[in-house]
Amino acid sequence: MNRHPMPVNDGSRALARREFLDRMGKGIVAAAFAPAAAMFSVRSSVQSSALRKPNIVLILADDLGYAELGCQGGKDIATPNIDSIARAGVRFTQGYVTCPICAPTRAALLTGRYQQRFGFETNPGPEEYADEKFGLPLDQPTLAERLKPADYVTGMVGKWHLGYKPELTPPERGFDEFFGFLSGAHNYLPGGRRSELRRGLEPTTGEREYLTDAFAREAVAFIQNNKDRPFFLYLPFNAVHAPLEASEEYLKRVESIKDATRRTYAAMTLALDDAVGRVLETLRKEGLQENTLIFFLSDNGGPTSQTTSSNAPLRGYKGQVWEGGIRVPFLVQWKGQLPEGMVFQEPVSSLDIVPTVLAATGIGVKPEDNLDGANLLPSLKSEKAGRPHDVLYWRSQNKKAIRLGDWKLVKEQRQSGWELYNLADDIGESKNLAEKMPEKVKELEKAWQEWNAQLQAPKWIRQDARTAGRGAATRSPGTGRGVDVEQRFRQMDRNGDGKLNRDEVGRPALFRRLDLNGDGVVTMDEAKKALIINRRPAGENRK
C-alpha cells in the first residue's frame, strides 16, 4: 500500500508552488541587499555617534612626580595604561599647573581661571582647622556647572578639597553623582577611618576595597550607567599622595625594589595605573573610546623627600615654584580627532582644559567668562601655529614666578632677589642669569607686577593646630567652621556612649591632643579643654 500518495494536481497545488517561488525570490533579494542594509545601519550608528557630543574624562593624579611614568622616562615602575594615553594621543613636555600645592591647583583646573583672581591662594590645612571662608566661591562656575545646561550628566569620584560647607560640596557644584572625600588626604587601606567617604551629601561607611580600587570601581559604574548620553567624569585620585599605604596585592608586584618607602610608593603607582586601565577598558568595551576626550595630569610636582616621587630632570618639588613643583605629567587623548603619539613641546597649562572642553562640546567661551586658559584644539590639530601661551604666571603667597617665552623669573621662599633662567638651555634651573641680564629681569618683573595688580589678596591662610586663630574657644577640632564643640562631639560619637575612641576621632595626632589624661578615650570636657590648650600662643605653658 502506498503510504504517501501523490498530491492532487489542482489549483491549490499551483498556488502553493507560486507562493514558494515568490517567497524564494524575495529571500534571494533580501539576502542580496542584507550587506548593504547592515552597512547602512553601521554608517547610521557612526553618524549618530559623530553627532553626539563627546564624553569628557578628566583624570587627576595627586603628587605624581614628573619622571614617574614610563612615557616620561620612568624605569622602575610599569605604567602601561597611563602610557597608552600618550601613545594614542598627545604628551605635553611642558605641561604646567597654576600652583605647587593641591587645593589652589584644583580651583584653577575646574574654573579655567587663575585661582588668585578670586582669593583661593592657599591650602586650608586640616579640615578641623580650616578657615570659615575656605572654599571655591559660588560665583566661579565649575566645568561641571558649565556642562550641565548642555545636557551632560556629570559625575565625580575622588578627592574634592574645594570646600566643606554643604553648598560648596560636589553635589552643589554641578555634579549629579559624587563618591569620595572632601579633605586633602585620606587613608587607603580598609579598617582605617572611613566615615569621611561620602556618596552624594551623605557619609558612607563599610568600604572594604583599597581606596584606589574603589575609586576605579565607582568610575567604571558611572560610565556604564551613563553610556547612552554625553557625560563628564571628573576622577581626581588621591594616589599617590601620603599616607603611603599599599595592599599586599600591589606590594608583591614590586618586591624587587629594596627601599621600603620607594616600594610602597611604587605599589601605589601600580594601583593608580591599574585603575586608569579599568576606566580605559570600560570606554573600549562600551564603544565610547572614539567619542571621549580624555585628560590625564598631576595636581603638582612630587614631594620627593616624603614619598620618593621623582621630578627629574627638574629642580625642586611640591610646594616650590621651581619647575619641579609646577611642571607635571600632562596627557590628552581623543581618538580620531587628535594625532596619535604626538609630543607637543610648547608650554600649556591646566587652565587650558576648561576652554578646550568647551570648544570640543560646542558650548564655546563667551567674553564675560574671563577665562585665562587657551583652547588647545587648533594647536594640536596643526590649525594654528605658535605657542598657546606667550606668558604664564605663578603666585603662592611669597613665592613668585613668570615664564615669558623661554625665560623664567622666579623668587622662592626666603630668597631676597629674583632668579633668572633660560629654560630652553637650562631645564634644571641651575644657571642663574639674573646678575648678567638685569634688563631681562626688569622686563619680566614688570610683566609679573602688572598681572599681580589684577589679583585679590588671599581669603584665608593655611591653619593647623599651631596656627589656628586664638581665643575661638567655641570652635572645635574637627570643624574649623565655627560649629559648637558639643555639636561636633556628638557627631563624632557614633556609638553614643559619651566618649570618643580612636576610630571615632580617626586622626591619631588629633586623638593624642584630645586625650589629655591618656586613658584611651576622650570625654566632652577633655575636648573643650584640649581646644583651649591647643589654641594658646606658642611658648605658653600647656599643662
What this model shows, in words?
This protein is α/β, with parallel strands linked by helices and 543 residues long. Helices cover 32% and strands 13% of the residues. The protein is built from 16 helices and 16 strands. It has helices spanning 11-51, 80-87, 102-111, 143-147, 211-225, 248-252, 260-285, 304-307, 323-326, 353-360, 377-380, 438-452, 485-492, 502-505, 508-514, 524-534, and strands at residues 55-61, 90-92, 95-96, 153-159, 177-181, 198-199, 202-203, 231-236, 292-298, 330-333, 342-344, 348-349, 391-396, 399-404, 407-411, 419-422. The strands form three sheets. The chain has a ten-stranded mixed beta sheet with strand order 7-6-5-4-8-1-9-10-2-11, sandwiched between helices. A four-stranded antiparallel beta sheet has the order 13-14-15-16, covered by helices on one side. Strands 3-12 form a two-stranded parallel sheet. A hairpin with a 2-residue loop joins strand 14 and strand 15. Helix 5 packs parallel to helix 7 (260-285).
